[in-house]
Records
---
Amino acid sequence: MRLMRRTRVGILGAVVATALVLTGCAAEPAPTPTPSPSAAPPVSPTPTPSADPLAAVDALVVRPTVLELRAGEEVVESLDYMSDPSEAVAVLTALFGRPAAEEPYDGGNHRPDGIRHAWGDFVLDERFYDEDRRQRDGYDWLIWPRFAVYFDGPVAEGIALRAHDGSQAGEEWAVLAELPSFDPELRVCVGTSIEAETIQVPGDSPDRANVVATENEDDGTVRWIGAPEMEADGCA
């Protein structure tokens, strides 16, 4: 009897153990928590470098009181003839991509010493007027420009050189003379006026600044175009 009882107990334990094993196999495993991905930091856009406005300039246009740097018909920058010549030279050096060829010169009775800054057929003529006298006598006007410009040809370093009406050095003088802006009656001491602008000057002085052109009489072409030249009562 004892043996039979023990056997039954053993069988019952095995059945219970088997049931527990089968129950454990059938149960769904507990899900493993997945960590949430951390939010990526916002990416700042890379700033685009601003384009150099001088890179678009394709023409220098001479006017009575300023030199215009143009991209098509848009004026990108204007250089006033009464402004600091060193600043104008710096702008033009950046435009042409190289320093100018420089030629100092001695003045005379009607013109001070100066220095010519040339990029091919474009010349900026820096003039060393007496600044103390300029201020004392009220000559801070185009009567004594701090620099002038000259176009000796139609192009310099790939940049077109022209007047406001399109005139260029090297073209036929007879064609220039037919333009409405051509004014041989307006007295200037160098060349012929092809554009005039009225400005305010001290006293009773003539009040028109001019772009002028000169003729090459050997071949009947325009020798050069430049500015500024003031209207004059008379020429010495």
---
Amino acid sequence: MKNWKYIIVIAVLGLFSNHFYGQIAQTYSFDADDLLEHVKELSSDSYEGRRTGTPGAEKAKTYIIECLKNLEVAPLNGEFEQAFNFDSGRIKYNGVNVLGFIKGTENSQKYIVLSAHYDHEGIKNGKIYNGADDDASGVSALFAFAEYFKENPPVHSVILAFFDAEELGLQGSRYYVDNPIVSLDSIVLNINMDMVSRNVNKELYATGVKTHPNLQTVYENIKPSENITIIAGHDGSDKKQNWTYSSDHGSFARKKIPYVYFGVEDHKDYHKPTDDFENIQPEFYKNAVQSIIMFFSEIDKLKF
């Protein structure tokens, strides 16, 4: 792993039309090599597809906690793990959410939950479903956020939520919102990332921007890099598949908490054993993560 920093400089033209024009630039930095290396690690065969309740999922949980410690992220309420159990069919599962915490500099009693799920499909018919895009990409993006916060502490407090058992019906995020460690009333927003590392058209969807006026305002004014397009949709207001409850943001939506879900449309390797690290698109992935961080940084400036 190289030790150089991937520095992204975005010239924001007309970000907010009353005073941003031409001269202003924002810098969003994270280690691009680490971003890719985390995906490569978590989607390797040694994790056996990270199915909830298996040794592979346990290994992923341990890896995530070690990474958070290395990034100097504190546990939420004193411990990283939030254990839960549930039945799916005739099978009983034990799951574990991993929860990190960064205290806000000003609005510390208000929380933004940044989330991704670390579980996947496991092994089926002798084939490992490694889930590189789904959702090792979102997990690694949370690490990029943690690194960004070291130099750019957030205004609101942030919970980094690595949810388990998303593939089994959003079980981890559902348990979290039903058993919140901080009051649900203090959670102003969920930003969920699930499948953000590949798209042949260089398109990243943002579902949920209509759930709060602040989200709509930032979406309409933000200018991502020329190498990626952010599209609002898949929210029931267009003719596309409705993604409102398609991933862990759905658990927040059911509690009437504003959310934005960032993800790509399904590709040929979706939920197949070919969703491997070799098939992600590194440049698109880096641009997607920097765009999501950019979106967060503008939202974080506003009051909810």
